[in-house]
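Report of the visiting student (M.T.), summer placement. My assignment was to run the structure pipeline on a short list of targets and document each run. The first record concerns Baseplate J/gp47 family protein.
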Amino acid sequence: MLDKNGFTRPTYNEIVEQESEKWAQLFGENAQTNSHSVGGIIIRIHSYFLDKLYQLSELIYNSQFVDSAVGTTLDQLGSNVGLTRQPGQVAIGTVRFTGTVGFVIPSGSLVRTPDGSEYMTSEDVAIGQDGTGISHYLYANGSGTKYNKANETQAIMVTPSESVTAVTVSEVTGGADQESDESFRARIDLANKTVMPSSPYNGVISAIEKVTGVTAVKIISNDTLVDDAQTNTPAKSIHIYVNGGYKDDIAEAIFTSLAAGIRTVGNQQIEVADIAGGKHQVCFDYPTTKDVYVAVKLVKTMEYPLDGDEQIKKICMDYINGVGMGNTVHYSYLYRLIYDQVPGIQVADIKIGTSRNQMSAQDIELTNVETAQVTSEKVVVS
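After the run finished, the C-alpha cells were exported:
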C-alpha cells in the first residue's frame, strides 16, 4: 500500500488471509480455504506470486532513495552527484631477495606470504654484492585489502631457486576491495553535504575519499604559531592522515582540493605538477599500524568442519583489519562472528592483545592515527 507514510508491503500470510476472506465472500462461508483444500491451494499459489510482485514493488520504491537503494541502482544515484563506486585495486609494495651474488630473479616471478597471498615482480631483480636485491615494483596477484602488508613479512618463491635463500615483502599498500554499498552511500551523503557552504576541510576529505582504496581520512589542523609536538604538526600547517590508497593519487586529490598557501606536513612527500608545469610538494601520512594478536580456544562438536581453524582465522582477520582508523577493536564482536559462521563450536574462549604475551578479554582502543592489523600467523586456534 502506498500512502502519505510511504510504501507498506503486505506479508505472504496477510495476502493469504485477504484472499481467503474474498474466497469466502464469493463462494460462501462454508467454502474450504485450508492448505489442503483445492481452494486453499489455488489461493496460496496465487498469493505466492503476488508476494513476489509486492517484493519487487518495494525494491522499486526503495531504489529512489540513497539510504535504501542497493547495487546498480545505488551506482546510478551516485552518478547524479558525480560519484562512481570505487573498483577493486591491486596493492603495490617492495620485495627484498637474499641469495647468491649476481643471480637475477626474472620479471613475473611469484612470491607467497604465509597467509597465502601471492605477489609478482614487474622487473628483473639482480642480487648485488651485499647479497640482496630490492625492487619497489612488486604487484599483488589480485585485488583487495588482504594483500596490504604494512610491516615486513617473510615470503617464499612459488618456484623455488637454490640461489635465493630468503624473501621479504614490505610496505605493500593501495590494495582495495570493491566499495561496499555502505561505504558508497556514506560518500554520496558527504558529497550532498559539501554542496552546501561548509569548511574547506570537508572538501579535502571528500576529494581524498574518492581515491580508490581510501577507507578513512583524518585532518589535524594547527592554526597557532606554536608547533604541536603531541600530534607532530608544525605551526600554521595541517597534518592529513589517510588509510589506504596509492600515495600519488592521494597527493593529487589533496593538491586539487586544498587552497593555495596551506602547508601540508607528513612523511609521505610527493611532487605534484600544476597545469603550467610548476612543481609543488604535497605531504601526508599513513596511519600507524598496531599489531593485534588473537588466541581462540574451542570446545568442538562432531559438526566442526575440517577447515574450521582456517575459517576462524579469516573471520578474525576480516574483522580486525576492517575496524578502521581511530576506532576500537571489540573482542566480544568475534564471539558473534565465530558462533554465527562456524558450526560445531560448543564453547569458545577468545583473548586479544597487542603482544603474544599480553592477551586477555579486552578491547583495544586505537588513536585517531592508528589502524589495527592482524595476519594469519598472529591468530592461534586451539
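Helices lie at 12-27, 38-62, 71-79, 181-195, 200-209, 247-257, 308-321, 331-341. The two ends are 54 Å apart (CA to CA). I thank the supervising group for their guidance throughout the placement.
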